[in-house]
Automatic annotation (TrEMBL):
Keyword annotations from UniProtKB, A to Z: Amino-acid transport, Signal, Transport
Residue ranges annotated for the Leucine-binding protein domain, each copy included: 26-352
BP GO annotations: amino acid transport
Protein name as catalogued: ABC transporter substrate-binding protein
Species the sequence originates in: Pigmentiphaga aceris
Pfam family, one: Peripla_BP_6
InterPro entries, A to Z: BCAA_transport, Leu-bd, Leu_Ile_Val-bd, Peripla_BP_I
Length: 383
């Protein structure tokens, strides 16, 4: 039952009683890439949300109200993300929308939420500029700008990387932003680039680029890719006898790498606030609950979605919902920035960013990344 309807039914039942406290549903939208090349990420995200909503509702919901998730597949395509956002916001009249999975789609869909004064909350978007869209846009995914310098620095310290080749996807908002941030981090650390090569979404043959890269004899390959292309890049590099570390961005932090690259998946460096080896009480509880429910290990994307729903439910506990959608959306927006929460991904808080004109806009995550290296089909923390 939707909120408006359930309230009025209760009102009739109460027969004019002065006050009544009756549970209502809080409808929240989730736009995730459940199919297509980004499906690996989107399914982990959906699982994280579903686990969190079960736990939150079992523990009494939000001040007695139950959260109901409406989950839609945006297929990792920006046109679909726009359609799904419109449907959730205008037709289903959800309180807020999580997602979409890719920054490429968020850049297209979040302006719709901003214009409709509906909170949009990314849990996996890491490209620059997403939260600059406006003050209804939030994310708890840590940006490439924050993670990549830490990853490169660690690889330089530990693996003695002195010069690198760069390979990136030049037709996607996230892979392009990863490239921009890698470039800046390399300049800051005065690491020379031997060559810069590109590929496009859907490419399957990377031999030409990797052959050029091999000829420049780099100490590492810096790779800004989504896993659908990044997994095959790793296989092709190792097949060509390139054994140097591969330094990846957020797209390469997915167990899908192990499915795609199998025994060619070692020596991949990534950074993230979340690690399966981080044995804090909140993370240990999350991993055990996830395994019990799905009979599979969670990943970073599941962890971020799981924490994101707790962040929103923490904000909602301080909000008096009025059943007037516009007011409730604004009240949630106003309550979110102050939330501090320690979950599976560690201690979290928001920081406000500016828009292109320098005016205060949306909210990014403040979290410390951990650097990890793949070994034997696992991400191992690199101290
Ligand atoms: N971080 C990616 C993006 O912003 C999406 C998740 S897959 C790494 O597009």
């Amino acid at each position: 039952m939707n909120r408006a309807l359930s309230r009025s039914v209760v009102a009739i039942a109460a027969l004019g009683a002065a006050s009544f406290a009756q549970a209502a549903d809080i409808k929240i939208g989730v736009a995730a890439a459940l199919t297509g090349g980004a499906g690996q990420y989107g399914n982990a995200i959906r699982n994280g949300f579903q686990l969190a909503v079960e736990e939150i509702n079992a523990a009494g919901g939000v001040n007695g109200d139950k959260i109901v998730l409406q989950i839609e597949d945006e297929q990792g395509k920006k046109e679909e993300a726009i359609n799904v956002f419109k449907k959730l916001i205008f037709q289903d009249r959800v309180l807020m929308v999580f997602g979409p999975t890719l920054s490429n789609s968020a850049q297209a869909a979040h302006p719709i939420a901003q214009a409709a004064k509906t909170p949009a909350f990314g849990t996996s978007n890491t490209a620059d500029g997403i939260t600059s869209i406006g003050n209804f846009v939030f994310r708890n995914s840590v940006t490439e700008a924050d993670v990549l310098p830490a990853t490169i620095k660690k690889a330089v310290e530990v693996a003695g990387v002195k010069k690198v080749a760069v390979l990136y996807g030049n037709d996607d908002v996230f892979t392009k932003s990863g490239y921009d941030n890698f470039k800046k981090a390399l300049e800051d650390l005065k690491i020379p680039v031997t060559t810069t090569e590109t590929f496009a979404k859907g490419d399957v043959d990377f031999k030409a680029q990797l052959t050029k890269i091999k000829a420049t004899n780099p100490d590492a390959i810096v790779l800004s890719a989504l896993v659908a292309e990044g997994g095959p890049v790793m296989v092709a590099a190792r097949q060509l006898g390139i054994e140097v570390p591969i330094i990846g961005g957020n797209g390469m932090n997915s167990p899908r790498v192990f499915e795609l690259a199998k025994d060619r998946s070692d020596n991949l460096w990534v950074g993230s606030p979340w690690s399966s080896n981080n044995d804090t009480p909140a993370n240990t509880k999350f991993i055990a609950a996830y395994k019990a429910k799905y009979n599979a290990a969670p990943d970073q994307f599941a962890a971020q979605a799981y924490d994101a729903l707790y962040i929103v439910s923490t904000a909602l506990k301080g909000v008096k919902l009025t059943n007037k959608l516009e007011a409730d959306r604004l009240a949630l927006r106003d309550a979110l920035p102050a939330v501090k929460y320690t979950g599976a991904t560690g201690a979290f808080q928001f920081a406000q960013v500016k828009d292109k004109a320098g005016k205060p806009a949306g909210y990014d995550a403040v979290q410390t990344p951990i650097v990890m290296v793949t070994r034997g089909n696992a991400y191992v923390i690199q101290k």
